[in-house]
Structures are given as C-alpha cells and as structure tokens.
From TrEMBL:
Domain Gal80p-like C-terminal: 138-275
Annotated coiled-coil segments of the chain: none
Segments passing through the bilayer: none
UniProt keyword annotations, A-Z: Oxidoreductase
InterPro entries assigned: Gal80p-like_C (IPR055080), Gfo/Idh/MocA-like_OxRdtase_N (IPR000683), Gfo/Idh/MocA_oxidrdct_glycsds (IPR050463), NAD(P)-bd_dom_sf (IPR036291)
Protein's name in the database: Gfo/Idh/MocA family oxidoreductase
Length: 362
C-alpha cells in the first residue's frame, strides 16, 4: 500500500519571491509524492489567502497558531526571519508536529539549546536547514577526502564574500545589518559554509577570531536613508581542526571582483580547490577541482553527472531537496539522517566560540 504524503504547512511562504518559493517549493516538487503542501500561515490572514490561492493550497490559516494546531498538518516548515524562530518552532514542537526550521535555528546559542531540548522531549523529527551538508558536491568531496585523495589533511583555508554586510543595502535586507537580529554574516553565509567544511573535515579544535567593522553606517538606497550598522563586515578565524590540521577563514562583506568563494584543502598527497560565485555554499553551484601525486595542474573532480538527473537546476533548491529526502526517511522509518536540532546547537556553539573570541579583542 502506498504511504500517504507527509502533509506540510509553511509559516512564511510567498508564491513568487523569497527563499521558500525559490528553494523549498521546487525542492518539494522534485520529490514526487513524498510531500503535499496543504497550508500556509503568513504575517497576515490576507497574505496567507493570497499565497493559498496562487498555489492552490487547501488551507490559508489565520495565524501560525492555527496552522500548528491543525490535525491536517504533519510537518511545520518555518521560513521567516530569525528573531521569530524561537516562538514559532516552540509552538510547533509543543503541538507535536515535526519541524523543518531554516538556519539559524535560534537567535543565539541559548535559544538553540532550548529548542533542541524541547525537540528531544517531544520526540518529533526536528530538522535544521544547513542544506550545504546535503550538496552533491560536498558529499562527493567528503568521499574524496575519506578515500585519501589528498592523503593526510595538513591545512584548509576558506575565503568567502557575504554579498550583503557592506555599506549599501535595500530596505528588505536592512535587518541583516543589525547584529541583534541574529542574521549576520557569521551566522548565515559563514556558518552555512562552515557546516559544509565540518561535514568534510570534522569538527573545529582551538580557534582565535577577530571581527572588523569598516562601515558603521549603511546606505538604505530605496529608502534614501543612512542607518546604523552593527554587524561586522570582516570576519577572521584561525586555529586548528580537531584532527590537528591548520584552518584559516576570512569572510568579507559585499562581493569581490575576484573569486567570491575559494576553499582549499591541502594534504600530504594532493590538493583540492572548491570555488563558487558567492560565499553562500548552501545556495550556489560549487565547482570541485583537485590534483594529486605527480599531477601539476588541477582537474575537475565533480560528482557523476547522472546524480544530478531529476534534481532541481538551482543549487539551493537541489540542496534543500536533499534535506527533505532525508527528513521523509526519518519521519517514516525512525532514522535520524537529516541535520538535527542537536547538530544546530553544535554549530551555534562554534559560532558562539568565534564571537566570544572576537569580542575579547574589543
């Protein structure tokens, strides 16, 4: 007998814009009948009605509370801004729903710990969207390292551009520039990419960090205003991995005229280089190259082309689909293969260590 689809309710979904529409919708559509999106709750009932009508959904809930209470929802997907995660995810967990929450899980380590504890108490499947861990290129890279392509890993270095967090923005993204909102360069592009780095190379060991803020104000171009900026625009981290390999990370605000994601892994037998057009490993197409032994030039070391068949073309949607595929298996079989809230706490803890080290510099 065919299992019925997992019934999904979105908190924060517009039909033609933003991350939920461009990544989550095509991700779910690519998985056949595993899921059915049945309802939505947005900031207003009118917004939910517009989305439900545009997407042909059964339910436009008047509030998130109504959505999480509905017996017709199995999985609550939270895709709103970070400051709202704790309240909405808590409500879903207390209602006994499975949860997929976008990263960051909470606004800081304490909120993440409290949500993870609540998820453990309720026994539901609670997943965080660190989808770079499910990228085909990252899984292939992990295999290359495990098979000894570079030999013993001696060092790894990462340079990334955040896209935002420079001296200009638009009204919609201004909240990213206020550190109190928990949506900073370190918590979004750097953390997503560090999740991938740790998937491949294991956990961080001792580290030291420094943050620099070259721009204390930001021009909000569409509002014609200059406003305060408290999120840093240069992030420097160095230390060692738990394995003993040296690690160096530099994230910078805005974009570069050079390579906007450059990640190298250097070992006793070979070298690997990962590049992309932006420092958000979770949502950009990654290119993997490498050389070993007597080879003098790097060649592509990409996953088999057949692995991309039937998957979304947009890398962000493809990676999110990888998380949803694991999540469906976890719900149906009791496995725990998707990034969990406990995994999110570990990543939040790494961020807290980095931020604490940087704050000590004054």
């Amino acid at each position: 007998m065919t299992e019925r689809p997992i019934r999904v309710g979105f908190i924060g979904l517009n039909p033609d814009s933003h991350w939920a529409a461009t990544a989550h919708l095509p991700a779910l559509q690519s998985l056949g009948g595993a899921y059915e999106i049945v309802g939505v709750a947005n900031s207003t009932p009118e917004s939910a009605e517009r989305t439900a009508t545009a997407l042909g959904l059964k339910h436009a809930f008047a509030s998130p509370a109504a959505l999480v209470a509905s017996p017709e929802i199995d999985l609550v997907v939270v895709t709103v801004k970070v400051p709202h995660h704790f309240e909405l995810v808590s409500a879903a967990l207390l209602a006994g729903k499975h949860v997929y929450c976008e990263w960051p899980l909470g606004n800081g380590l304490d909120e993440a710990r409290r949500l993870a504890a609540l998820a453990e108490e309720t026994g539901v499947v609670a997943v965080v969207g660190t989808q770079a861990r499910a990228a085909l290129e990252i899984l292939h890279l992990k295999q290359l390292i495990a098979e000894g392509f570079v030999g013993e890993v001696l060092s790894t270095s990462l340079i990334g551009s955040g896209g935002n967090w420079s001296d200009k923005t638009i009204e919609e993204y201004y909240y990213l520039f206020d550190a109190s909102n928990g949506a900073t360069m370190q918590s979004i592009p750097m953390a997503h990419t560090l999740a991938a780095l740790q998937e491949v190379l294991g956990a961080f060991g001792p580290l030291d960090a420094r943050f620099i803020n070259h721009f204390e104000t930001v021009e909000v171009t569409d509002a014609g205003e200059t406003r305060p900026k408290t999120a840093p625009d240069q992030l420097l981290v160095q230390g060692t991995m738990a394995s003993g390999a040296a690690v160096s990370v530099h994230y910078r605000g805005g974009v570069s005229r050079g390579t906007n994601l450059l990640w190298e892994i250097n070992g006793t037998e070979g070298d690997i280089q990962v590049t992309a057009d932006l420092g958000h490993a979770q949502m950009v197409q990654l290119t993997v190259k490498g050389a070993r032994g007597d080879a003098k030039e790097m060649t592509e070391q990409m996953p088999a082309p057949a692995l991309y068949n039937g998957k979304p073309e947009f890398a962000g949607a493809r990676n999110v689909a990888g998380i949803y595929a694991r999540l469906a298996a976890d719900i149906r079989t009791g496995s725990r293969t998707a990034p969990s809230f406990a995994d999110a706490v570990a990543l939040h803890d790494l961020l807290d260590r980095i931020e604490t080290s940087a704050a000590a510099k004054g």
